[in-house]
Sequence to fold (1823 residues):
Amino acid sequence: MSEPLLRVDNLVKHFPIRAGFLMRQVGVVRAVDGVSFSLSPGETFGLVGESGSGKTTLAMTLLGGYRATAGEIWFRGDNIADPVARRRRPALTKEIQVVFQDPGSSLNPRRTVRQTLEVPLRVHRLVSTHGEAARQIARLLETVELPAEFMHAFPAALSGGQKQRVAIARALATEPSFIVLDEPTSALDVSVQGKIIALLLDLQRRLNLTYLFITHDLSLMRNVATRVAVMYLGKLAELADTASLFGNPLHPYTRMLLSAIPVVSEAEERLKPRWVVPRGETPSPARVPPGCSFHPRCPDAFAVCPRIDPVAASADGRHVVRCHLYPGCTPAEVADAART
Amino acid sequence: SAGGPREPIVLRIDEVAVAEIDPAKSTDFIDSILFYNLYDTLVAAAPGGRLAPSVAESWTISPDALTYVFKIRQGIKFHDGTPLTAADVEFSLQRMMALRQGFSYLYDGWVSAVKASGPSTVAITLAKPYGPFLSTLVRLGVASKALVLKNKKDGKFGEFGDYGDAFLSATDAGSGPYQIKSHNPQQLSVIEKYPAYWQGFAANAPDEVRVLLSVEAATIRTLMVRREHDVTSQWLPTEIYRALDDTQGIALATERGQSNLFLKINTKRAPTDDINVRKAMALGFDYDEVLRLIRINDRVTAGKTARGPIPEGFPGFDATLPVPKRDVAAAKAALGQSKYKDVEMEFGWVAEVPLEEKIALLFQQNMAEIGVNVKVVKVPWALMTEKATKPDSTPNIVPIFFAGTYPDPDSFLYSTYHSTAAGSWTSMEWLLSKDVDGLLDKARTTATADQRLLLYKQAQKMIVNQVPDIYPYEQFAVFAYQEYVTPAFIDPAKAIPVQGAHWNFRLWQVDMAKKKAMGGK
Amino acid sequence: MNAVAVAPAREHLRRTWYAFSRNGGSVVGLGIVVAIVLLTTFAPWLTPFPRHARAFTDFEHAGLPPGRPYALGTDTIGRDIFTRVVFGYRFSLLLGVVVLTAAVPTGVLLGLLAGYYRGWPETVIMRITDIFLSIPPLALALAIMAVLQPNLQNAMLAVSAMWWPWYTRLVYGLVSSLRTEGYVQAAQIVGASPAHILLREILPNCLPAVLTKMTLDMAFVILIGSSLSFLGLGVQPPDPDLGTMVADGAKYMPDLWWISVFPGLAILVVVLGFSLLGDGLRDVFGVEV
Amino acid sequence: MRYSTFLIQRVLLSVLVLLGLSILIFMIARVIPGDPARIALGPLASRSQIEALRAQMHLDEPLYVQYAYYLAGLLRGDFGESLYTHRAVAIDLRDLFPATLELVFYSGLLMVVIGVPLGIVAAVWRDRWVDHTVRLVSLAGVVTPAFVWAIVLMLVFAYALGVLPVAGRLSPGLVPPSAATGTVTLDALLAGNLRAYLDFLRHLILPSVSLSLAGVAQAARLTRASMVDVAGRPYIEAARAFGISESRIALKYMLKPSMIPTVTILGLDFAALLGNAFLVESVFAWPGIARYGVEVILRKDLNAIVAVVMIMGLFFVVINFCIDMLVGYLDPRIRLRQMEDAA
Amino acid sequence: MTPEPLLQIRDLHASFVSYRGLARVLNGVNLTVGRGEKVGLVGETGCGKSLTMRAVLGLLQPPRARVRGEIWFAGRNLLALPSRELEQIRGREIAMIFQDPMAALNPVFTIGDQLLDVIARHPKGRPSATEAWERALAILREVALSDPERVMRAYPVQLSGGMRQRVLIAMALVNEPALVIADEPGTALDVTIQEQILLLMRSLVDAKGLSVLLITHNLGVVRALTDRVYVMYAGSIAETAPTADLFRTPKHPYTQGLLASVPKLSGEGVPRGIEGMIPDYLAPPPGCRFAPRCPFAQPRCQQPPPWVTVDTDHQVACVLYDAAPAPRLP
Ligand SMILES: Nc1ncnc2c1ncn2[C@@H]1O[C@H](COP(=O)(O)OP(=O)(O)OP(=O)(O)O)[C@@H](O)[C@H]1O
Ligand SMILES: Nc1ncnc2c1ncn2[C@@H]1O[C@H](COP(=O)(O)OP(=O)(O)OP(=O)(O)O)[C@@H](O)[C@H]1O
Ligand SMILES: [Mg+2]
Ligand SMILES: [Mg+2]
Fold:
């Protein structure tokens, strides 16, 4: 395997919780709680997981939007979790880009599409003249399938999907090497989504881009990701090659997810695992259950689950899972203790 | 009527600025009004600028004019009931000289000793003969030594502590016809009758006088019309006097012979250091237009054309000086003689006195007609006093109203034209003339009154020849008053040409019945 | 695609004018401002007594009510009020425009910096702002005057010196809440410089409030002319200045009401003009197309 | 980090601000043109008198020495003596500050109680006649200085109609309530003297209205502008879709987010009233500190200048603090941030 | 069996005044939701789905927007209703779940504050404070928000996108309106939660006889939840059919393209979507607005397309099926 482009090592991001007018800190949200993985150049790393499990927080921490509480993020040999190191590398903003989940608020309501798109072009000196910028913006809009006239529009006049396309155009503008796609197509219809995804894949192939792809649409994930990680309450539950994950889901949560995928044909229904009835409530990351955090909802939970947090382990070195059902996941000494 | 408490007679007046009631510090117009009502002075100013006995029943002057012995009147009581004695007079003068504020400069360097001997004799020894000395004693208010020392605070005057500095700024220790009831120097000062006053009161003299301080002209006017106010200050705009005079039940009174308007010309700054320029200015100024400017209505005006630095009615007035007249041709001719070509000058007027703006603009227009370019600048009073400290910063021309403070020509001339006064706002002419100094010094050290008068006339001629000022007009102070009030000075025979001295409220009268009838509140 | 061929400048102008003129008031406002500018430019030819704006006294005709030939009456010096109002616009507008162009950018910029950067820049800027806000304008003006020459330029400087903190405070408050907006984060992530983020992303979103305050301040600045000229700082007599005319004339109410009422109305008109204009500009900077 | 930490930090910073202010105003007071001794001694003082006073006031020493003297006095609770009233500055402040504070308080109340609702009304009925009227009238409010309002109101209500008193805080006949706090409101109410309080309110109407009109107008316009801005936000449309009544939308959903600029500017306006009240005070003979402040500045009354400015500065600091609190209350994002800063 | 209609949109037109001219977005929308029916509305982004719903709620205000047509709801034409009466309907009889969860929540109030305001408008009268609080917690739990107490006290910034979305769903459902318009309720949710919510909506609909109008891009969700689907393109309805029908035999070339664009779980790659893009509303093509992108376009497409009934309850606006002309919708 080639040298990883990005390696995340035991990354932690906690938010304090405050309440009342005096805003006392009453607890902590463990939004990201010890996540490790690495990305090779050119791959599409899928990140799925339930809402609030910390995907966006993870992405924002990679992007430098939040300061990591602990852990390391290595990007091309630099630990960019350290804000000082990040500042030393201004080019990071060119290399790492993002398309946000929420198109409405990521566009400045008082700036036209053109003004918004011109920023990355100018910042990274990708264009020098006014006319060149206009041409480049028209080209960008064309790649995201918006008519060039839209460059004069304000976000308020765009539909949700149109806004998202502008956001994608903005991310593409810097010709980055790594793009975080935080639910980039969730506001788009399937037709446009198809085009955008195709475009993103084209670009990836052409420019050897690496994607961190966050989505709830597992059907889409199935088709774009090379590897998929499943996140649950700030931790990775399972990480595997796409085919392996969809074909042989190990973690009960993964299975629960896959069984709930809405599909459009009977043929696909048959591809989903046996339906696992979702049960219980999603725990809050502010009050993570002890032991395996999934145990209250897990159909297969057993005695050790509420007491001990499993560790990640893999039988084949590629399909990693964090569940007591699998060998190696129960910490050795605990397992020993349980045996005696 | 006997029996039953009578409704107190209240007189309400107003004045600008803060009121200082310490006799050793008071100088301003309003200070003077309160001063003369709260304190008895050693010598009193009388109508026509004469001097009259007061606390000093009589006095004798030694032949060398260096020792003055005063016989102190017995039976005068301070407001706390204690008798006034020679020791109090001695104390008051010493205190004034020690504090070195207010009018103390009149004694500074002149008085070498003051000594009370017994309850009724005070001897003051001078370092050299001092002609105006007796006149200046109209500003020596007698405070109770015992009371002041009882209320002294810590201070730098050794056994005298702060010399009652704080105490006398808050209340009085006098023997005058009125005593402090409440005093807020910025807002309202209330004085009430001291019934045991030795000289008595007029029949309907006010029991209480309320002095409202620093209130807008429009407010005073409203209060007057609502009959919630009795007598205005002399500082209202002409237009308001006119309106008040048109109001039923309100009349205007004027008071003359106290004050003069000077257009002080800086004789040490180009181009007004050239006497030809100054002559041109004086000739080019339109004195008649000034009269139009200060005219209130057909009956009342705020002044008349002046002849020189001293107003008519004040000791030392020189009736032989010519009445100035505008003569454009002569002015142009004088200007032609000047060494300056394009004559340009700065006219600084005191921002607090709106009337001066009109004078300034008139002057500007007049000068434009003879080819002099005048730049008019508005200067707040505090800045003006600062500018006055140096010839370079003193504007070329500044209008200043000056009122006599003791009944002697010296009051007008010395602080204006003597070199030692230079640097103060009274002497922005920067005359610095040895000859004038000589005459003024000589007049001071001359003992006999007639001789002194001659010297002062001589000095005035010499001064006027150098054109250090334009004298646009002699100011008549105008007051509006309710017709149920009779001010003491309404009778010209009773007018005292010294700032504040005639505002002796014990002689004023308020006709309460008439007031009721007129709807007074 | 021929849409790109549309000249962006013209396109922008068209949009701007559309946004501006959609609200009829702003066109009226522009009209008023333009009319006043023209009126003052050609004042010597458009007023009946241009001499009255300079050294001139005529106590014979002082305090005349509106009528002929003095349309708006005369003041206590006998000068035509109409003439002086028209000439007065010159100084008042100059004062207003100069002060606001000096104070607003300064204040806004400091507010942006303080609101955006946490830590010491915020503390330093905002506390200095506090100090400046606490100093009485009069003291500040006098102090500046003491150090510099008392002339019109320095008067403007003095007023600007007391004006900027208000904008700093206003913008600071706005930026504090705007800085967490998604688009600000987005701009940071594409690598936009802080200058860009502050000036292009955040500033436009502060403009409505700033513009509103500016139109009102136009009035306040014109009025402050009167206190300045009292200190001998601002416009000096006989040059007319609207603020001074209003303040001084008030003394003669109600008899000579015209002395202060007409200059007051004149200020009202120009401020109304600017205010309507400001509303229009707000629409131009606004979110809608 | 706790919010209380933020509060404590903020208070400490305020003390620092006051210290900085004292140094700055100390210097400003000394560069203001004019010789305090000369001004204090009055028109006719001689040069030697002036020299004597200058020495007494340490005016011939370097500035930092003067400041040290001043600070030493301050630590003894001594503000020095006013050259203007010849009284202890502390006494002047005690006499004058409560009256102005009271006037300013009621004016501020009017600004909020009248101005903000007017702004709301104008925003809700945007582009209708109510809006146009409010906007035009508020402009008139802004372009007319408080001083002119004072005169106009006085002429109408006291001169022409004669329904309201003109000068002072209480009718002359009325005994002033015991001067525990110096404010009539508190003193009268503490003493249960309702008659005095009502009389005071009658005296208060004209000055407080004149003083607050510009602020009322400003409040109305600022409120309207930001309400209109907020009205276009999606969450307002959402609230409407949930059937929240228009009045509740206006008074809650639009008002709170739109109050940030209004609160900021109005708060400062309020604090500035303390200094701006001087002409109104002199029209209505209100025994206040604003007039005193202007006089002492013009007379270069060093001790009084510093003391008055420090009092005003303290007021500003307190108001500023309240603005910060209020803005934090209005927008939780700001509050969250304030805390992070304190951390 | 066609249920009694609850919402009936007839020939709805909407246009916007813009500096470049008039944008005619909605171009004769006809749509009916029956009582107790679950209807899906799908269509490409920007085709006017949200706009139609805003028109229903009376949120399109002149002078910017011009709306024409009829919107009948429970016997009243909403477009002709005075605003006060409309206010009574909103949130009680018709509730809307907004597309953009961040923007739709007021940033300066806590969730609790906003939710309680909605609860206070319960048609059966205002509940007591504790009752309202309980009801709020219950509904938050129902939309699968764990720790509802924290959510109630949180400000919108403190919640994840999905959490906000669920809060909005809770706000819409809490008063049990007759019609719930859900504008992309699932976009920000993971599939398990989405499923949970869809189940919840379905159970409410079934239990209380509510109607649902579900707007979404997710055709899988439409298939799972709805009884009937409308397909919209560029401001008008292209096709409508019972759900199963539509997924089995889509008629309109646009519908066909749309279905073909859905990525499949079988993993054969992401389909490329329909060629071309949605027209510019300032200058839409005459006749059928889809014609420029249609592989079957013919000269006849220059005229407005006919409204053809191809099967029971299955209608399509396309000349391809014109053989059996059917009367236009009433
Ligand atoms: N700025 C913040 N302050 C406090 N808590 C936060 C903040 N941002 C996010 N959280 C909390 O962190 C947790 C993870 O949020 P995050 O946005 O990362 O979830 P997500 O996986 O992206 O969810 P979704 O799929 O809904 O977007 C949530 O519980 C959220 O409430
Ligand atoms: N205020 C407006 N002014 C001008 N045009 C508008 C306005 N609001 C919406 N539009 C236009 O109307 C069209 C339809 O918008 P709408 O929001 O209804 O789309 P949508 O079908 O909901 O799309 P999405 O699925 O992306 O949310 C868009 O092309 C948009 O540009
Ligand atoms: Mg997220
Ligand atoms: Mg939509």
Summary: Chain A has two domains: 41-69+85-237, 249-340.
